[in-house]
UniProtKB/TrEMBL annotation:
Pfam families: Sulfotransfer_1. InterPro entries: NST/OST, P-loop_NTPase, Sulfotransferase_dom. It is found in: Golgi apparatus membrane. 3'-phosphoadenylyl sulfate binds at residues 99-103, 182, 190, 292, 308-312. Residues 91-334 form the Sulfotransferase domain. It comes from Eublepharis macularius. Its EC number is 2.8.2.-. The keyword Acetylation does not apply. This is Sulfotransferase. It catalyses: alpha-D-glucosaminyl-[heparan sulfate](n) + 3'-phosphoadenylyl sulfate = 3-sulfo-alpha-D-glucosaminyl-[heparan sulfate](n) + adenosine 3',5'-bisphosphate + H(+).
Length: 345
């Protein structure tokens, strides 16, 4: 009888010991996870924009979950109202440039807890049919957010569409505008590569880049080719400067965003008057993809779509040289206007 009681006692002690060890391991893991989350948004109080009321980090994380549930139809409109969620007109827009890295920039800025992104390109200002639907239609295309958060959308066609600067000015003359650029010749080839891939998916043939970029009659650069025209950044920027001062633009180096994203993102944070929250912890290099991926927290990582970073076709070196020579004077003027110099050949 005594032996059985001793056995039962040992079993109870083992169970209690296991529970104690399990609890200890949970606390260690929990503290470790909070430490690892620290670079995203230090829990040293609350943060705010321009001295406005501040948003607790935990509330932000909860709100993002609530928004996700609302989009799935699992949260009621009453819940949204109670939590002060609104759909806001963007306070900043990534207006271009196509194939400059607009999607990467938007996704990386979304790492910041004070930024909410429009997932799709809205094409409100460059599409006459959409624009005719009015500003309320545009606002309802935006994601739900806190009143203190900044909503950002991106539509690369805005940069090169003639009517857009005036239309955006009429909506908000003090809006902040982001332009991400790459070396013009590389950008033009990337533009061509995307179109080529679309043709191949439909089993259609397409001209070689050299034939499109160079006028066969004059042997000069074909400025009628859209991929070439888009890369003449200064021509498009001058049209925008008729409505907005240069101080309302921030130029992002798209080539550097690929190889060294953090410094570029920190410059954008400063331009948008956001507290610094994006750190190296949020960005990790994926050797398989050859690009930086995003780390939101210890459980949620994200890489850009596989269509990003397409392999470019080989282009005749003489054509590349001719294009770079053509773009050179436009690049120099772009440096002068923006006050930012790039190491473009």
């Amino acid at each position: 009888m005594l032996f059985k009681q001793q056995v039962l006692l040992r079993q109870k002690l083992l169970v209690l010991g296991s529970l104690a060890i399990g609890s200890l391991l949970y606390l260690v893991a929990r503290v470790g996870s909070l430490d690892r989350l620290q670079p995203i948004c230090p829990i040293d109080g609350r943060f705010g924009l321009h001295g406005q009321d501040e948003i607790p980090v935990r509330a932000l994380q909860f709100k993002r979950g609530l928004l996700h549930e609302f989009r799935k139809g699992n949260a009621s409109k009453e819940q949204i109202r109670l939590h002060s969620l609104v759909q806001q007109i963007p306070k900043a827009i990534i207006i271009g440039v196509r194939k400059g890295g607009t999607r990467a920039l938007l996704e990386m800025l979304n790492l910041h807890p004070a930024v909410v992104k429009a997932s799709q390109e809205i094409h409100f200002f460059d599409n006459d049919e959409n624009y005719a639907k009015g500003i309320e239609w545009y606002r309802k295309k935006m994601p739900f957010s806190y009143p203190h958060q900044i909503t950002i959308e991106k539509s690369p066609a805005y940069f090169i569409t003639e009517e857009v600067p005036e239309r955006i000015y009429k909506m908000n003359s003090s809006i902040k505008l982001l332009i991400i650029v790459r070396e013009p010749t590389t950008r033009a080839i990337s533009d061509y590569t995307q179109v080529l891939e679309g043709k191949e998916r439909k089993n259609k043939t397409y001209y070689k880049f050299e034939k499109l970029a160079i006028d066969s009659n004059t042997c000069e650069v074909n400025t009628k080719y859209k991929a070439v025209r888009t890369s003449i950044y200064t021509k498009h920027l001058e049209r925008w400067l008729k409505y907005f001062p240069i101080e309302q633009f921030h130029i992002v180096d798209g080539d550097r965003l690929i190889t060294e994203p953090l410094p570029e993102l920190q410059l954008v944070e400063k331009f948008l008057n956001l507290p610094p929250r994006i750190s190296q912890y949020n960005l990790y290099f994926n050797a398989t993809r050859g690009f930086y991926c995003l780390r939101f927290n210890i459980v949620f990582n994200k890489c850009l779509a596989g269509s990003k970073g397409r392999i470019h076709p080989e282009v005749d070196s003489s054509v590349i040289t001719k294009l770079r020579k053509f773009f050179h004077p436009f690049n120099q003027k772009f440096y002068q206007i923006t006050g930012r110099t790039f190491n473009w050949p």
